[in-house]
Design a protein that fits this description.
This protein has 311 residues and is an alpha/beta fold. Helices cover 47% and strands 21% of the residues. A hairpin with a 3-residue loop joins strand 2 (12-21) and strand 3.
């Protein structure tokens, strides 16, 4: 079946059109990704700005036109942290329906994690059945403990790259004091993980979403994004620390010259790197396996399964 998934994130909006054959085959037909920062200012004001809504709705109208050329069996449009936390989310949802005809499903943190897990599992070797999944988003970070024969343990943290950037990082490049403040914010949230998950040892960390995939591209000095080289790349803690030191000594403009960094991530990548590094240090991970599969693919797999059950 031919399906379209749209993920309206706090930082990035993503489109994926693919043929899905449950349980395990996805053939990409079309896709797009735009850094639109819908969640700009939401952490402080709890409202979506008019300018941010305009950017996203304009993109959704473009994607509506793009997807009409396909004979789709279904379209799923979801929104995450920025929309679920904003007091004026109904204004945004009403605009999307009025201008595109699409209804937007607002995912809870747990549901976002569940569908992200579907996507991560799809891209992993079958030999990896137990792992800790990590989705560092713009407004939240989902931690997923996946174990054979058990339902996943999930915790959604109020910790994301846009949120951390707006709370802590004022100067460019950031100061040592700002890095320490960021670590304190991260540690406060990670205390929730320590309480929720029993001690973890001997299982891999699998990271998905833009910060992790960007670090994989930076580590390899990719002149353009190549999913095949990013997916299943192993980021070591020492590599992440080295990249962090390089990133925090540069301005945003200077970071844009680094091969592997797409425009729009030149500021948030610092926050994402510190989050990943701190999680790895806290829980004793020496490496992070990178997954280029995540929420978008999980949305498609979930929708395909539901349609299959209706047949």
């Amino acid at each position: 079946m031919l399906l379209a998934a749209i993920d309206i994130g706090t930082l990035t909006c993503r489109l994926l059109v693919a043929e899905v054959n449950p349980p395990g085959q996805i053939t990409v037909v079309d896709g797009d990704r735009r850094i639109l920062r819908l969640g700009e200012g939401v952490d402080q004001h709890k409202r979506l700005s008019q300018a941010a809504m305009d950017r996203v709705v304009s993109t959704l109208k473009d994607w509506k036109e793009k997807t009409t050329k396909y004979s789709l069996n279904g379209v799923v449009v979801v929104a995450t942290s920025a929309v679920r936390e904003s007091e004026n989310r109904q204004d945004f949802l009403a605009r999307v329906i009025q201008e595109t005809g699409w209804e937007v499903e607002i995912l809870t943190g747990d549901e976002e994690a569940r569908r992200t897990l579907l996507g991560i599992r799809f891209g992993l070797s079958p030999a990896i059945s137990n792992f800790w999944g990590l989705d560092i988003g713009g407004g939240s970070t989902e931690c997923i403990l996946a174990q054979n024969g058990k339902g996943p343990a999930v915790i959604s943290l109020d910790l994301g790259v846009v949120r951390l950037l707006e709370r802590v990082f004022r100067l460019d490049p950031p100061t040592a004091q700002e890095i320490h403040q960021a670590e304190a914010c991260i540690d406060q949230e990670l205390a929730k993980v320590s309480k929720a998950f029993r001690p973890i040892s001997g299982i891999p960390l699998v990271g998905t979403a833009g910060s992790v995939t960007t670090l994989a591209a930076l580590a390899q000095g990719l002149s353009r994004y190549e999913s095949a080289r990013v997916h299943n790349y192993e980021l070591t803690l020492s590599t992440i620390k080295g990249l962090e030191q390089d990133l925090i000594t540069k301005t945003g403009t200077q970071r844009l010259a680094m091969p592997g960094l797409e425009p729009g991530r030149e500021y948030v990548i610092v926050a994402g790197t510190v989050i990943l590094r701190r999680i790895m240090e806290t829980f004793g991970f020496d490496a992070c396996l990178v997954s280029d599969f995540g929420l978008r693919e999980g949305i498609l797999i979930d929708k395909a399964g539901k349609l299959k059950n209706l047949e």
